[in-house]
Amino acid sequence: MSSDIIPALELKEFLKKALIEDIGSGDITTNSIVPETHKSRALIVAKSEFVLAGMPFIKELFMLYDKDIGFHILKEEGSEIKKGETIAEIDGKTATILICERTGLNILQRLSGIATLTRRFVEKIKGTGVKILDTRKTTPLMRYLEKYAVRIGGGFNHRFGLFDGMLIKDNHIRAAGGIKKAIELVKNNRAFHHLLKIEVETKDINEVKEALEAGADIIMLDNMDIEEIKKAVRYIKGHSQRILIEASGNMNLDNVRAIAETGVDFISVGMLTHSAGAADISLKIL
Fold first, then answer.
1. For this structure, is 102 an active site residue?
2. Is this structure's pTM higher than 0.85?
3. pLDDT per residue over 239-262, tens digit each?
4. 133 shares its domain with 163
5. What secondary structure letter does DSSP report for 285?
6. Which of 64, 202, 269, 279 is most open to solvent, judged by the fewest CB atoms within 10 Å of its CB?
7. Do 179 and 255 sit in the same domain of this protein?
């Protein structure tokens, strides 16, 4: 599972690049209309209901552009926001507010949308003890932020990238010539050490048996139906209590509860980050 800490330097670099992408050589509209000394007060307001995520990053973005801006966060991360509520107040140069507005809102809407969808999944399986996980199906260069939003919504992070978790997928299995061979190759690699766990993706009960016999630590049940998942869970737990079980593939709000009740430990949901709708949020100068 990935770290809860977003590296400060990487975050600042991302926010700077996001601003540069939008500003380019300068905001020709704002520069034509607003005097440098003009100041305003603005509000960030909810236009829908959602779980709030991303406010610390938006504050950082505004202050990276203008260290003298006043940015006052009024709602806690992870709180459930109602339509019409004020999320933050901003005081300072009008030009700063106008220039940073869209980039800030884009990030805030995206992260709040992810947190909101995650919260809905978490609430669906409440009481089962199962953890909702994200995946690597994230927006390029926004993975830290999007996985942060999953945590704010009550979910948990799967591996962050290719470097911090061992996951043997179907294409690895094909390339190696089978699950047993793939696990043997992993264990014989110099990069493997005793603290790493080996997770293997399986598509049917035969692959589950092979992964168990070959010494997998975590078995992923990929795109199996409910009855196949139940059968796999019974088999795994009948042979070993140490093996962790993850269900993955085609997860949605309609089937996630039934899957959680099969006895798996984790359910990974790609749509948390690749299909979450943006929260509706606006900024208004008073």
1. yes
2. yes
3. 999 999 999 999 999 999 999 999
4. yes
5. E
6. 64
7. yes
CB proximity list for 244: less than 8 A, separation 6 or greater: 217, 218, 219, 265, 266
Tens-place pLDDT, residues 108-137: 999 999 999 999 999 999 999 999 999 999
Marked catalytic residue, from 77, 199, 201, 210:
201
| Assigned token pair, 44 | 């960030």
Close Cβ partners of 195 (under 8 Å, ≥ 6 residues apart): none
In a shared domain, residues 117 and 136: no
137 is catalytic: yes
Tokens of 173: 């299995």
* Number of domains composing the chain: 2
> Does residue 240 sit within a domain?
yes
Residue 140 shares a structural domain with residue 219: yes
Q: Single out the catalytic residue among 77, 210, 222, 246.
A: 222
**16, 47, 82, 102: the active-site residue:** 102
Residue 140 maps to which CATH number? 3.20.20.70
Q: Is 24 exposed, middle or buried (0-12, 13-18, 19+ CB in 10 A)?
A: exposed
List the catalytic residue out of 169, 230, 231, 257. Answer: 169
Instruction: Judge whether 2 lies within some domain.
Output: no
